[in-house]
Amino acid sequence: MVEKRDQYREIVKALPNPGLGLGLRSKHFNYILEHSPAVDWFEVISENFMDSGGRPRHILRQVAERYPVVMHGVSLSIGSTDPLNMEYLGKLKSLAVEVKPLWISDHLCWTGVNSLNTHDLLPVLLNEESLKHICSRIRLAQDFMERPLVFENPSTYLTFKQSTIPEWEFLKYMAEETGCGLLLDVNNVFVSAFNNDFDPVNYINQLPHDRIVQMHIAGHQHCGDYIIDTHDRNVVHEVWKLFTQAWQLTGGVATLLEWDSNIPDFDVYHAELLKAKQYMSVMTAYNMDTQNQEFSSTPVSNPVDFLVNDFKW
């Protein structure tokens, strides 16, 4: 008898590579519908549409008729000690039935306790106990959704003393035990590596590349002693170089540019995404001039500007 884990693994292996995509943001709704720009696919924040039956949902239906769509969530809270929120999963499943996304992703994180949502992606303890706990929750969520889910490596700003498993190994074991897919956020690797003093090249080398179905790239704010994952500016050269490494190791997977604060006009956003084509070649990536990293002391937190609803979870 074939286990569901093996079924999910085969489904993940067969997922398509739709190309280079952008996040669907309300600022660009009218432009996209009026001009149908040549974007390969769009990623939508699931929570922005789950409780909306008005114009945002109407817009999403029209976009989904024209482009492949992927659903990306920020509130599954797979690392929480709270019971899985079945109301949330029910709404997520209903939206998926309507939108027919290529896949559904969320983050290796927790977002709150006692049913309160902090709207932040909080780091999880990485040890054998938390691995078993999170894998059991992934199995429940996948079986309820009747499909494999895809999980993204978070950006982190600390390392727990009690963690005993490197994050790349944790993700590998998680995929092996549940059949889930992985979303490699290259910018998150760079941010976490700087903040936690590990080698980002080794991190990417150690991942199970055949389980990666999507990559994220984004800009960040370098504050000198630490980096904040702000998604509010251009991608830096060091992240593009890591993207080149990941592109070679995965054989090329769906890639999306995140821009969630200080969102520019659509043509600027799209032009930044298309730079990825230059970095799909190793020679091009390593021969381009490096950029001077700008430091900023402005206090910031993780961006939530892309969220449009008030949540009850």
Automatic annotation (TrEMBL):
InterPro entries: MbnB/TglH/ChrH, Xyl_isomerase-like_sf
Lineage: Bacteria, Pseudomonadati, Bacteroidota, Sphingobacteriia, Sphingobacteriales
Name recorded for this polypeptide: Uncharacterized protein
Naturally occurring in which organism (per UniProt): Mucilaginibacter gotjawali
Pfam families: MbnB_TglH_ChrH
